[in-house]
Design brief:
Strands 1, 2, 3, 4, 5, 6, 7, 8 and 9 form a 9-stranded antiparallel β-sheet that branches. By secondary structure, the protein is an alpha+beta fold. The longest helix has 27 residues. Strand 3 and strand 4 form a beta hairpin. Helix content is 19%, strand content 50%. It is built from 2 helices and 9 strands, in the order αββββαβββββ. The protein has a single domain, classed as Lipocalin (Beta Barrel).
Length: 195
Protein backbone atom coordinates (compact mmCIF):
# COMPACT_ATOMS: atom_id res chain seq x y z
CA UNK A 1 0.00 0.00 0.00
CA UNK A 2 2.87 2.35 0.82
CA UNK A 3 4.47 1.51 -2.54
CA UNK A 4 1.23 2.42 -4.32
CA UNK A 5 0.99 5.73 -2.42
CA UNK A 6 4.63 6.61 -3.21
CA UNK A 7 4.12 5.71 -6.84
CA UNK A 8 1.10 8.05 -7.06
CA UNK A 9 2.96 10.78 -5.22
CA UNK A 10 5.84 10.45 -7.66
CA UNK A 11 3.47 10.71 -10.67
CA UNK A 12 1.77 13.79 -9.18
CA UNK A 13 5.18 15.38 -8.55
CA UNK A 14 6.20 14.73 -12.18
CA UNK A 15 2.94 16.22 -13.45
CA UNK A 16 3.36 19.27 -11.24
CA UNK A 17 6.94 19.74 -12.42
CA UNK A 18 5.78 19.51 -16.04
CA UNK A 19 3.07 22.11 -15.47
CA UNK A 20 5.44 24.48 -13.69
CA UNK A 21 8.24 24.13 -16.23
CA UNK A 22 6.20 24.17 -19.45
CA UNK A 23 5.17 27.85 -19.66
CA UNK A 24 8.75 29.25 -19.74
CA UNK A 25 9.81 26.63 -22.25
CA UNK A 26 6.81 27.37 -24.44
CA UNK A 27 7.49 31.11 -24.22
CA UNK A 28 11.08 30.43 -25.28
CA UNK A 29 9.83 28.92 -28.56
CA UNK A 30 9.29 31.55 -31.28
CA UNK A 31 7.99 30.93 -34.81
CA UNK A 32 8.70 33.46 -37.53
CA UNK A 33 6.58 33.28 -40.69
CA UNK A 34 8.30 35.19 -43.49
CA UNK A 35 6.22 37.30 -45.87
CA UNK A 36 7.72 36.76 -49.37
CA UNK A 37 6.00 39.87 -50.79
CA UNK A 38 7.88 42.10 -48.34
CA UNK A 39 11.21 40.25 -48.30
CA UNK A 40 14.20 40.48 -50.63
CA UNK A 41 17.65 39.06 -51.19
CA UNK A 42 20.06 41.64 -52.63
CA UNK A 43 23.41 40.72 -54.13
CA UNK A 44 26.50 42.76 -54.93
CA UNK A 45 29.31 41.56 -57.20
CA UNK A 46 32.33 43.75 -57.90
CA UNK A 47 34.41 43.78 -61.06
CA UNK A 48 37.25 45.96 -62.34
CA UNK A 49 34.94 48.42 -64.11
CA UNK A 50 31.88 48.68 -61.89
CA UNK A 51 29.79 46.93 -59.26
CA UNK A 52 26.77 44.84 -60.19
CA UNK A 53 23.72 45.01 -57.92
CA UNK A 54 20.70 42.77 -58.14
CA UNK A 55 17.90 40.97 -56.34
CA UNK A 56 16.33 37.57 -55.92
CA UNK A 57 12.82 36.87 -54.65
CA UNK A 58 12.08 34.98 -51.48
CA UNK A 59 9.66 32.20 -52.38
CA UNK A 60 8.70 31.15 -48.85
CA UNK A 61 10.12 30.88 -45.38
CA UNK A 62 9.52 30.01 -41.79
CA UNK A 63 11.92 29.73 -38.88
CA UNK A 64 11.36 28.23 -35.43
CA UNK A 65 13.85 29.13 -32.75
CA UNK A 66 14.12 28.48 -29.05
CA UNK A 67 15.84 31.13 -26.95
CA UNK A 68 16.24 28.67 -24.05
CA UNK A 69 18.24 26.12 -26.07
CA UNK A 70 19.68 28.15 -28.96
CA UNK A 71 18.24 25.64 -31.44
CA UNK A 72 16.68 26.73 -34.73
CA UNK A 73 14.92 25.00 -37.61
CA UNK A 74 12.95 25.76 -40.75
CA UNK A 75 14.10 27.25 -44.04
CA UNK A 76 14.18 30.27 -46.29
CA UNK A 77 13.63 29.38 -49.95
CA UNK A 78 14.91 31.71 -52.69
CA UNK A 79 13.77 31.42 -56.30
CA UNK A 80 16.96 30.91 -58.35
CA UNK A 81 15.08 31.83 -61.54
CA UNK A 82 14.18 35.30 -60.22
CA UNK A 83 17.62 36.96 -60.40
CA UNK A 84 17.53 40.51 -61.77
CA UNK A 85 20.53 42.79 -62.20
CA UNK A 86 19.24 45.26 -64.78
CA UNK A 87 20.93 43.55 -67.74
CA UNK A 88 18.92 40.78 -69.42
CA UNK A 89 21.92 39.11 -71.13
CA UNK A 90 23.86 39.00 -67.86
CA UNK A 91 20.79 37.71 -66.01
CA UNK A 92 20.36 34.88 -68.54
CA UNK A 93 24.02 33.86 -68.10
CA UNK A 94 23.70 34.04 -64.32
CA UNK A 95 20.50 31.97 -64.31
CA UNK A 96 21.50 29.38 -66.91
CA UNK A 97 25.29 29.05 -66.64
CA UNK A 98 26.23 29.99 -63.08
CA UNK A 99 23.15 28.99 -61.06
CA UNK A 100 21.95 26.23 -63.45
CA UNK A 101 18.48 27.23 -62.30
CA UNK A 102 16.64 24.88 -64.65
CA UNK A 103 18.09 21.99 -62.63
CA UNK A 104 18.40 23.77 -59.26
CA UNK A 105 15.35 26.02 -59.06
CA UNK A 106 15.86 26.99 -55.41
CA UNK A 107 18.59 28.22 -53.13
CA UNK A 108 17.77 27.46 -49.49
CA UNK A 109 19.04 28.49 -46.10
CA UNK A 110 18.20 26.16 -43.21
CA UNK A 111 19.18 27.54 -39.77
CA UNK A 112 20.27 25.02 -37.15
CA UNK A 113 21.26 27.16 -34.14
CA UNK A 114 21.88 30.72 -33.04
CA UNK A 115 23.73 32.73 -30.44
CA UNK A 116 22.75 36.04 -28.93
CA UNK A 117 19.76 37.09 -26.88
CA UNK A 118 16.44 37.36 -28.68
CA UNK A 119 14.14 40.10 -27.37
CA UNK A 120 10.42 39.66 -28.02
CA UNK A 121 10.14 43.46 -28.38
CA UNK A 122 12.69 45.90 -29.77
CA UNK A 123 16.12 45.11 -31.22
CA UNK A 124 18.23 41.94 -31.04
CA UNK A 125 21.59 40.96 -32.51
CA UNK A 126 21.90 37.28 -33.37
CA UNK A 127 24.45 35.05 -35.07
CA UNK A 128 22.58 32.43 -37.09
CA UNK A 129 24.36 29.21 -38.04
CA UNK A 130 22.95 26.99 -40.76
CA UNK A 131 23.24 25.36 -44.16
CA UNK A 132 23.08 27.28 -47.42
CA UNK A 133 22.24 24.88 -50.27
CA UNK A 134 23.47 26.01 -53.67
CA UNK A 135 23.56 23.77 -56.78
CA UNK A 136 22.29 20.95 -54.58
CA UNK A 137 25.23 21.11 -52.16
CA UNK A 138 24.88 22.31 -48.54
CA UNK A 139 27.51 24.66 -47.10
CA UNK A 140 27.81 25.72 -43.46
CA UNK A 141 27.63 29.46 -42.90
CA UNK A 142 27.18 31.98 -40.11
CA UNK A 143 24.95 34.98 -40.72
CA UNK A 144 24.97 37.98 -38.37
CA UNK A 145 21.37 39.25 -38.14
CA UNK A 146 19.77 42.38 -36.73
CA UNK A 147 16.19 41.65 -35.68
CA UNK A 148 13.57 44.30 -34.89
CA UNK A 149 10.27 43.24 -33.29
CA UNK A 150 7.29 45.57 -33.07
CA UNK A 151 4.23 43.78 -31.69
CA UNK A 152 4.14 40.60 -33.75
CA UNK A 153 5.83 42.20 -36.79
CA UNK A 154 9.47 41.34 -37.43
CA UNK A 155 12.18 42.79 -39.68
CA UNK A 156 15.41 40.78 -39.87
CA UNK A 157 18.43 41.93 -41.86
CA UNK A 158 21.85 40.42 -42.37
CA UNK A 159 24.89 40.50 -44.64
CA UNK A 160 27.30 37.71 -45.54
CA UNK A 161 29.67 36.70 -48.35
CA UNK A 162 29.31 33.63 -50.55
CA UNK A 163 32.57 32.27 -52.06
CA UNK A 164 30.63 31.05 -55.08
CA UNK A 165 33.64 29.95 -57.18
CA UNK A 166 35.07 27.96 -54.27
CA UNK A 167 31.62 26.38 -53.87
CA UNK A 168 31.58 25.13 -57.47
CA UNK A 169 29.76 27.83 -59.43
CA UNK A 170 31.17 28.94 -62.76
CA UNK A 171 33.43 32.00 -62.66
CA UNK A 172 31.83 34.59 -65.01
CA UNK A 173 35.18 36.35 -65.54
CA UNK A 174 36.43 36.74 -69.11
CA UNK A 175 39.72 37.87 -70.64
CA UNK A 176 38.51 41.48 -70.53
CA UNK A 177 36.31 41.37 -67.43
CA UNK A 178 37.51 40.15 -64.03
CA UNK A 179 34.93 39.81 -61.26
CA UNK A 180 35.23 39.11 -57.55
CA UNK A 181 35.24 35.46 -56.48
CA UNK A 182 32.77 36.28 -53.69
CA UNK A 183 29.31 37.78 -53.90
CA UNK A 184 27.88 39.81 -51.02
CA UNK A 185 24.36 38.88 -49.95
CA UNK A 186 22.08 41.28 -48.06
CA UNK A 187 18.94 39.77 -46.58
CA UNK A 188 15.88 41.85 -45.77
CA UNK A 189 13.19 39.60 -44.30
CA UNK A 190 9.80 40.81 -43.14
CA UNK A 191 7.34 38.62 -41.33
CA UNK A 192 5.32 37.97 -38.21
CA UNK A 193 5.71 35.98 -35.02
CA UNK A 194 3.20 33.15 -34.87
CA UNK A 195 1.88 31.43 -31.74
Amino acid sequence: MLDCFLSRLFRVALLLAAVLLSPPLLRAQQNLLIDPARSDVHFTLGDVLHTVHGTFHVQQGGIAFNSATGQASGSIVIDALSGQSGNSARDRRMTNEELKAESYKNVTFAPTRFTGEFHSEGDSSLQIHGLLTLLGTAHEIDVPMKVQVNGNQVHASGTFAVPYVQWGLKDPSTLMLRVSKEVQIDLSLMGSLQP
